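Q: Convert this sequence to structure tokens.
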Amino acid sequence: MCGIVGYIGSKQAYPIIINGLKRLEYRGYDSAGIALYDGTDIQLAKTKGKVADLEERVAQEISKKGTLGIGHTRWATHGVPNDVNSHPHFSNSGDLVLIHNGIIENYASLKIELINRGYTFKSDTDTEVLVNLIEEIKKQENVKLGKAVQIALNQVVGAYAIALFDRKKPDEIVVAKLGSPLAIGIGNNEFFVASDASPFIEYTNNAIYLEDEEMAILRLGREIRVRKIKDDTLVNPNIQKLKLSLEQIEKGGYDHFMLKEIFEQPSVIKDTYRGRLLANQGIIKLGGLEDYIPRFTNANRIVIIACGTSWHAGLVAEYIFEEWTRIPVEVEYASEFRYRNPIITEKDVVIAISQSGETADTLAAIKLAKEKGAFVYGICNVVGSTISRETHSGTYTHAGPEIGVASTKAFTTQITVLTMMALKIGKVKGTISQTDYMMHLRELEMIPTHVAEALKSNDKIEEIAAVFKNATNFLYLGRGVNFPVALEGALKLKEISYIHAEGYPAAEMKHGPIALIDEQMPVVVIAVNSNHYGKVVSNIEEIKARSGKIIAVVTEGDTEVRALADYVMEVPKTPETLTPLVTTIPLQLLSYHIAVMLDKNVDQPRNLAKSVTVE
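A:
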């Protein structure tokens, strides 16, 4: 949520910042702003709407000159989306300029105290309170900006990633982090600041990711100094070499990032298991898992915590872990887990799943699990993310940047990692036969080919989308390991087309949802060959008897469901436990095409953010 970009150096800041904001649009936002400093005047432009609207405002109102600047895309928390509440925010003197991601929970009491000291406020934001608190401390304590920021942040409660500068110190930007991501790019006597590395990847591949409760002063002509906010101790920063490329964050000829990422799945699934899955040798080698196998094999249970699409991947994992490892599994919403005083012991293993590695609820759940003595294993996509640092060990999915807000390749790569984990643990425990183990290794190696085959139905799925684009409700049904896929398919449709959709286990249809079925209700049924096939056919018969419109996902060559369904979407034959990796593909494409036909903003759906870094 929200995006931060900053620059200080010898280059003109405006093009760096405005292009950086465009690359952070995937994070979700409702307004944008920029402040540029040329050494004499601070030029400010901000507006409700998109970065394109900000560009128009800049062209009409301010100079683009200046080698120091900060920019922001805001996802509203305190204060409605409008021009005034947009960032950056000035202090009352006009000297300090601040951008902020996160929430200051005690802003109201701080605001009252500042008003009593004569401060006035133009916006409804907690951010304007913070910049004035820093100014007041700087004035009262007679300290430099960095020290004032440190004192102020020790007085606030909440989460933040901030960047600010003082017009009296044009060679310096101060940044700090707690709970929201912040990356610092290091160039040749120049510094970049951003919520992730994408805004500065073409300028430098050297980056520092601040840890929670750390701050840094970026001063030209001097090395970065990183300090702990609480006790002022110096930190030796870890400078990482970025592997991200500019090509990865561009659309590559596709109309939308989401479509690009759907079609990337054959290659990214292969990247996920590359070097880890050696099917011919019967080997699975996951570096983060190797030393901790006994923690899993001796666990009383596995608890999976996640949100959104990652939670659905966790539900798939529940089926395969229990099947192959015979370890009890529970799947929890991270947002609920952290608030219900869960019973967790040192004999439990907690698997935390997050595409971004920055999800606030999942991070809080991780901390709670660690406090209770559990071993915590992370699965995420972003190298150097907070979750990768907070967990005891873990595995990266290596899916590459996922720019579309609605996750696609994150889902399939997370399932790929979880599948390898379950197979590895089951093999060590002896709870999966050697024959089944080897068969599933070979079949998992074939999944990229199967996904590529499923993608060949794109044109046919687009035709189906045209038939149902004006529907107001959808029902998604699946059984067994494909029940979570039904949930995920419904979520995708809701996220990007704004059509109401619900996913259910097919057997639950008679326990309520069947009342909704009539000739106006499209029902998407996952009906691939499985142990549940006969039961699913019976469910389809029940829908047909009530005039429901059936869109079925079937195995190639199927005849029985094809004779019953109004429309079918075929996928290659796959072992049942691996079918979610292919059955999700037509559901992603169906949602995508419906949303495009409805002229929705596919990559940036309303009200949503890619990484939910606030509660």
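The chain has 20 helices and 27 strands.
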